[in-house]
Amino acid sequence: MSLKILSKLYEPGSLRNTDSGFELAFKNTFAPTQVTAVGPLVIDGGTIDLGQAILRLERPSERLGRPPSVREWQFKALNKDTEKDKDKDRTLSFDLFTVARIVVPGQRLSPGPHQVALSMMTKEVGEIKLTAEDSVAEQGSEPEEVQLLPRS
What is the pTM of this model? Predict the structure, then answer.
């Protein structure tokens, strides 16, 4: 699968620090897939600890004709890292136009550009690796306000 296509799944501007850590997002604009495992997440060459991280799937309604939904999973349960989850079949439907938001508590990123890579196992094609570059804004900086000009 082309790396160029996979890097287009990343949501530009989604890498940001939060009050409790940081988050980033990927949007499925390619094809529906069944995800069986997620990780590792690598930022600037370092593997991020996903022990307490959450994967939030946000499905919009306007594209699918269904009510919007948000579902969350802990990475350790999804990846069957706990004794009680070992024998469970954990498959996530990563539908078209769904946003997968990764929420990582307890870690913050320095302002500036970062290289991001995320591996996922899928039923359809096996392992895929999503890569992107994004920047974390300075703390307290707001996005530039867009000024609309009146039509004449």
Answer: 0.75
